[in-house]
Specification:
The protein is α/β, with parallel strands linked by helices and 284 residues long. It has 2 domains: 4-221, 2-enoyl-CoA Hydratase, Chain A, domain 1; 224-282, Orthogonal Bundle (Lyase 2-enoyl-coa Hydratase, Chain  A, domain 2), CATH 1.10.12. It has helices at residues 34-49, 95-115, 131-138, 165-173, 175-183, 190-196, 208-221, 224-237, 242-256, 260-270, 279-282; strands at 4-6, 9-14, 18-23, 55-60, 64-66, 119-124, 127-129, 141-145, 149-151, 187-189, 201-203. The strands form 2 sheets. The protein has a 7-stranded mixed beta sheet, with helices on both faces. Strand 2 and strand 3 form a beta hairpin. Helix 4 crosses helix 5.
Length: 284
Amino acid sequence: MDTGTFRGFEVALHDPGIALITFNQPDRLNGMTHEMRRDLIEIVFQAQLDDGVRVVVFTGSGRAFCAGDDITGRPRSYEGARPLVPDVTGSHRTPIGTYDALRSISQALNRAVRDLDKLSVAAINGVAIQTGLSLALACDFRIASTEARLGSGTLRFGLLPDEGGQFLLVQLLGVAKTMDFLMRSRIVSAGEARELGLVHEVVPSEELLERTMALARELASGPQVAMRLLKRSVYNAAEQSFAQALDDIAAKTAISDHHPDAREGATAFREKRAPRFNQWLEER
C-alpha cells in the first residue's frame, strides 16, 4: 500500500504488517474534509488487498483524534501532500445532493473501515467528536488516552449523526443508553467512555501509541485467515438469527479448518511449542 503524506494524514508501515495512519492537521483538530475522506477510503481499500498489511491503526496528532468535520471555512493547501484520488467533492446544496454525498463519501469511509477484513484499532489521543467518534466506533478496538473526550454533539448544531454513529452506538450501548448519549449531546471523558463500553482500554497519554502498537503486534501475530473470518462472523451475528449465525460460521469454518494455519496450530500443540502462524504470508 502507499505510504507517505496524503491529504490530512500520513501512512507508515511497521512490522509485522501494521499500517499506522496518523491525522496530521492538529491546528484544525484534525477536522475531516471530503478530500481527506476520499484519500482515506482509498488507503483502506489498499490495506484490504495488500497481503503486507495485517492490522490498521488510526490515531491523531495534537489535541484531537478528530474533532468532527472541518467547519472553519478556510481552504486547505495540503502542502507536500500527494492526492490518492481525483479531487471530487459532494454537494449539499440540495436534498438529493446531501443524500448522495453522505452515502458516497461520508458514510463510505466508516463502511470501508467496518468492512475491512483486517483488524483495525483506534488510538484515541484526544477529542473524538462526531466524525471522529463514528470513525473510532467503526474500528474493532479502541484504546483511549486519559486526555481523550468522546461524543457526538450533532444536536448542538441541530444536525444528525449522519455517518452511522447512531447504529454504531446502539451496537455498543443498546437503545436506552444511546438515547441518553445522543439526545443529551453528551461528551464523556475517557474514563466514562470505558465504563460505558465505548473503549476497551484507557492509558496515560504518553503510553498510548506504545500500548496501541503492542496490541497491533499481538493481533498481527495471530492466525490471520481465521481472525478475518471470525471478525466478519462476529459482526454478522449481531444482525442474524441463531440459525443464520450457525450457518455463517460453518461456511467460514470450511475455509479455516483446511488452511495451513490450522495444521500448524495442531502440530504446535502436539509438540508443546508456540505456533508459527502466517507462514503463507511470510513466504510471499
